[in-house]
Every structure is written in C-alpha cells, then in structure tokens.
Write a structure and sequence with these properties.
74 residues; mainly alpha; 2 helices; 89% helix; elongated
Length: 74
Amino acid sequence: MKRMLVGLLCGICGYIVTVEASYFLILLISSNRRDLSLVAAINSALVFGPGGAVAAFAVGVMWVVRRRRIAALH
C-alpha cells in the first residue's frame, strides 16, 4: 500500500513538473508562431505530462522497494 501511495504522489508531482517544463521548452523551441501558446499547452498536458507521470511513478515505487531492501539488510 505504501508503495502505491508514494508512487501516486510522485506521479502527480512528476506530471506537474513535466507539464510546466515542457510548456516553456515548447515556447522556446517551436517555430510555430500562429497558435504557439495553444500548441504548447495541449502538447504539454496531453503528450509530455503523462509520460512524466509514468516515469515519476516508476521511480517512486522503485525508491520505496529499494529502501525496504536496504533496511532489511541492516
């Protein structure tokens, strides 16, 4: 249960951080000048955000599992 809770919290935080970072990176890098803010918002929320959430969830779960294994060795 603890693994899933930590994974969920990490996933939510990862989604937020990834959306913010990708939004500003798209604004800087994209050559589209017509609907730039709309393109950046949609791509950040629907493409990069879920990917960051999945990655952060996996890292959070692995972190808890590794911490338990280290604690069991001592």
